[in-house]
Amino acid sequence: MIDITRHRLARCYSLADLRLAARRRLPRAVFDYLDGGAEDEVTLYRNSAGFAAYELLPRALVDVSRVDLQTTVLGQAVAWPVMLSPTGLSRLFHHEGEKAVVRAAARAGTIYTLSSVASYDIETIAAAADGPKWFQIYVWKDRAVVRDFIQRCRATGYQALCLTVDVPVLGQRERDLRNGMTMPPRLTLASIVDAALHPDWAWHYLTTPRPVLANVASLAGKGLDKLMTQAQHANSQLDPSVTWDDLAWMVQEWGGPFAIKGILSATDAKRAVAAGVQAIIVSNHGGRQLDHTPAPIDVLPEIVAAVGDHAEVILDGGVRRGSDVVKALALGARACMIGRGYLYGLGAGGETGVNRALGLLRAEVQRTMQLLGCTAIGDLNSSWLRPTASRSRIDNADSCRHREVL
To answer: What is the pLDDT of residue 77?
Structure first.
């Protein structure tokens, strides 16, 4: 019998193809939750478009029969310089959720980062695969919860902690508001019909346990037995009063490799290093928080220059091609992180789809290196790039709103 999922995925040749496959399989509200950004989605568009600011400068007559893609991130060896970003409630997109993703990451020889608001808990994901794992955390109002998360991560062998700092409040994601993807969800006749028109997704959603915020649900004495109450509790714990003192406290509390995610300025990068952070993740939350911020690739060089050898710099946001990864590394990034890229694969075909997404992207990184004439990612620097001669950038909000954003 033909495996329909594998056959469909085999005809996907890029992350853009996987995006379209996920769009066909998922109800609109679910796909837009994955795909959308804040307000006019200007930042969402800029994140990918920013890579066009640089051209690659290949060198000829180089033996590229062997290309070394290996590197280390915070002392952890990885097979290639792409890591998996934290994404919340992944079981919305496929019933296998984060289990599928962590297994695919381990198979690909790279790091998976579990979200605080994942649909499986810390312990379950720790046991699901042997690959390296980070845990993403917020400074919640209830510091006892933070301590509990840290102790559980330490007990189950997570290698690093990743603090997200760009969510003092939730961004305005208007696709979700229009589709009723709120807490509580706003069911409409259109959303019910749309779910029925996507039978594969609907069948698994109805016949498997409903998604939960597993780490929130495990909090004792909170009465958090439903997704709605879990999400409301998590949102109420976002603390707009968090300061650099809270970061220093968390670095000390964890006592191990520590990354900060959501930095867009050299000034903040230097303050993070001074607080004891070892990795700066240049990110605008995938364009889902503050609209009209710069793309990570646009501010990467100044942040790399600001921190020097005092911290590793990781780019998160807009990576859709292997050439994007190569450009970021040439500008000084140690590695890149992807979120939507692997979620497109998850939404299109579960673990097999994530395998396909990572396999396609890794092949593109290797092919780009070979065509560039560079045999090791450690040899990449700005001499392999030049600014694009004529750069067209669409910043008009109305144009971005209606554009198919990749």
So the answer is: 97
Q: Rg (Cα) of the chain, in Å, rounded?
A: 20
> How large is the angle between the packed helices 199-207 and 189-196, nearest 10 degrees?
100
Q: Do the Cβ atoms of 247 and 278 come closer than 8 Å?
A: no
Tokens 């650099």 found at: 244
Spans in the chain with pLDDT lower than 70: 1-2, 183-187, 218-234, 237, 390-406
Residues 6+ apart with CB under 8 A from 139: 146, 163, 239, 242, 246, 247, 250
Q: What's the one-letter identity of residue 187?
A: L
- Give the pTM: 0.93
- Looking from the CA of 89 toward its CB, the CA atoms found within 13 Å total 17
Closest CA to 380 of 328, 337, 336, 338: 328
| Total domains in the fold of the chain | 1
d(CA 392, CA 296): 18
* 256: amino acid identity, one letter: G
Instruction: Count Cα atoms within 13 angstroms, Cβ side, for 326.
Output: 32
pLDDT at residue 229, as a whole number: 64
Find the CATH number of the domain harbouring 335.
3.20.20.70
**Which pLDDT value is given to residue 401?**
40
Query: Looking at the domain assignment, is residue 399 inside a domain?
Result: no
d(CA 67, CA 63): 9
Give CA 318 to chain center in angstroms.
10
User: Is 61 a domain residue?
Assistant: yes
**Residue 405 domain flag:** no
Residue-level pLDDT at 226? 59
Residue 53 class from Cβ within 10 Å (0-12 exposed, 13-18 middle, 19+ buried)?
Answer: middle
d(CA 29, CA 24): 12
Residues belonging to the active site: 285
Structure tokens at 89: 């409630």
Asked if the structure places residue 68 within a domain, the reply is yes
For residue 330, give its domain range. 4-388
The DSSP output letter for 120 is S
pLDDT at residue 133 in the model: 98
Q: How far apart are the first and last CA of the chain?
A: 34
